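hi! just following up on the protien thing from before. the input was this:
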Amino acid sequence: MPQIVHTVAAKSSSRELLPGLEGLIASRLAPQVTEIDCGAYPREFLQDLGRLGGFAGAVDPQYGGLGRGLAHVIEVMTRVSAECMSTGFLVWCQTTLAWYLQNTANEALRERLLPEVASGEALGGTGLSNTMKTCAAIEDIRLRARRMPDGYVVNGALPWVSARRRGSR
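and the predicted 3d structure came back as:
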C-alpha cells in the first residue's frame, strides 16, 4: 500500500491564501449561483480557480502544486462554499481527485495527470469517495448488497450522495 501524504499547514490570511480568489468568486461565481444550483456546471469558474492554484494547495510542487497542505485546501473550499455550496462540493471533488493522484502507487498516472488536475486544466472528481473513506477509517460502509438473478439489490445508507440529474451539464 502506498504511503499516504497528509500535510496540514497553518490557516492562511486572505492575502496569503490565493491572490485574486475573492475577486474571482465575486465576479465569476456569485453571478451564476442560482444557475449552478439549478444544474449548470461552472466549468469556467473551476478552470479559473485552478489557474489561481485553487486545487494545488496540498499537491507537491514537483507536480505543479503549492505544497501548502490540507489547511490551504480546506480554506479554499470554505471561501468558495461561502458563496455557493454546490461549487464548493465540486472543489472538494477536484481536490480529492488531486489527493488520489498524489497518493497513487501508479507513478506514470501521477506524472501524467496530476499537473493537469492541480491546475484545473483537467476537471474531474471521485466515484470512490465512500470506499476511500472506509479505507482511511473515516467512515464505515453502511451498504449491503444481495445478489439476485438479474443483478444486485443494495440496501443501507450513504451519509453524502450526489447524482447528476439527467440532462444537466
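The CA atoms of residues 39 and 145 lie 30 Å apart.
The chain has a mean pLDDT of 85.
cheers
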